[in-house]
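Exercise 7b. Backbone tokens:
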């Protein structure tokens, strides 16, 4: 578990890292939704990597503090610190209400007991119950053609759908795999080709007994994993932990397919005197990096990406709207950001349809009146 000394260290180093203005960003970035509150400072911070910021404060850190901070950041961004944009880390700080434990208080204590899978199923079932949903599974999209009056979506298996508007929720790292006609603007194309940088490993593991129910540990460089968090007890009274490790191709990363390395990496995050007693009951993971429909995990932006591309990614392209959690405001990279982006896009489509119906209605009325004259 995270004892007082370690918890205090966690808060101290995280606050030190994010205190770039001497006031914990309480005035320069009051609200997490949008960076226009201090545009000049945001532009300056966006140019920096997390490595740059760490170098600025390294003389104020002990070796132990530096190790914890490095592990904390790698757990957030899933890659080496030089590839992680500082602005993205500062956003997480502001999301936590300018408090060192604020984000953990939100993310670790507002959980869905039934899991995200059940949430997705309930949303789908609700949509089906409306009687207004048509759907097709196992139909990977290959091309989207906007003629102005209609948009046609083509799948790799030969299906196609014609509609007035399309909302694309495609992850940023997959967007470049889809052909658009007319072609996407240059900024969207560049952003989709560069992508977001979080290619981390995320692992679920059940260990024998309840001892690690409240366990939290950080390690840098670690042995494939930099963080392990006790999540709950299983029905068999075993400890369920979630572990995070950097991009397998980055320094300190390991492939999930190497089970021996995976076990060694997890054991390295447990008390040295108890490692010989540990029994693994279950190890579960999904290779999001090599999943063709994800090509990465939750979104984390590189230096100079946010200010250059996010606004362009959010803009519609003709009758095609974009609503990915990868470039939403506020909770970017979280399910909350995906929900927000989807709601905003749906509202825009609704308003456009209502406007078109009104205009067509007026034309019909005018047409009837002119016929009568």
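Sequence design result:
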């Amino acid at each position: 578990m995270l004892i007082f000394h370690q918890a205090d260290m966690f808060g101290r180093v995280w606050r030190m890292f994010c205190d770039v203005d001497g006031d914990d960003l309480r005035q320069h970035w009051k609200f997490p939704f949008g960076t226009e509150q201090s545009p000049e400072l945001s532009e300056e911070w966006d140019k920096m990597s997390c490595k740059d910021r760490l170098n600025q404060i390294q003389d104020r850190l002990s070796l132990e503090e530096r190790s914890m901070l490095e592990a904390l950041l790698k757990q957030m961004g899933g890659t080496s610190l030089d590839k992680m944009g500082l602005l993205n880390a500062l956003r997480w700080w502001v999301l936590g209400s300018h408090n060192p434990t604020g984000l953990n208080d939100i993310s670790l204590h507002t959980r869905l007991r039934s899991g995200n899978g059940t949430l997705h199923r309930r949303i789908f079932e609700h949509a089906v119950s409306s009687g207004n949903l048509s759907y097709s599974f196992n139909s990977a999209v290959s091309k989207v053609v906007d003629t102005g009056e209609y948009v046609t979506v083509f799948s790799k298996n030969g299906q196609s759908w014609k509609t007035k508007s399309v909302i694309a929720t495609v992850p940023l790292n997959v967007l470049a795999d889809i052909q658009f006609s007319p072609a996407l603007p240059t900024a969207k194309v560049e952003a989709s080709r560069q992508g977001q940088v979080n290619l981390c490993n995320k692992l679920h593991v059940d260990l024998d007994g309840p001892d690690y129910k409240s366990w939290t540990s950080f390690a840098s460089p670690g042995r494939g994993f930099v963080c392990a968090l006790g999540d709950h007890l299983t029905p068999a009274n075993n400890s369920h932990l979630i572990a995070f490790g950097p991009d397998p191709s980055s320094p300190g990363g390991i492939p999930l397919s190497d089970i021996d390395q995976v076990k060694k990496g997890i054991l390295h995050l447990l008390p040295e005197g108890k490692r010989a007693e540990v029994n693994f009951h279950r190890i579960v993971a999904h290779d999001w990096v090599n999943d063709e429909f994800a090509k990465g995990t939750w979104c984390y932006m590189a230096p100079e990406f946010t200010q250059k591309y996010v606004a362009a990614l959010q803009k519609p392209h003709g009758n095609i709207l974009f609503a990915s959690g990868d470039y939403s405001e506020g909770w970017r990279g979280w399910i909350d950001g995906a929900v927000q982006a989807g709601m905003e896009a749906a509202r825009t489509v609704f308003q456009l349809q209502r406007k078109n119906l009104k205009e067509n209605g007026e034309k019909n009325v005018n047409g009837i009146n002119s016929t009568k004259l």
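Instructor comment: The radius of gyration is 24 Å. The first helix runs from residue 4 to 18.
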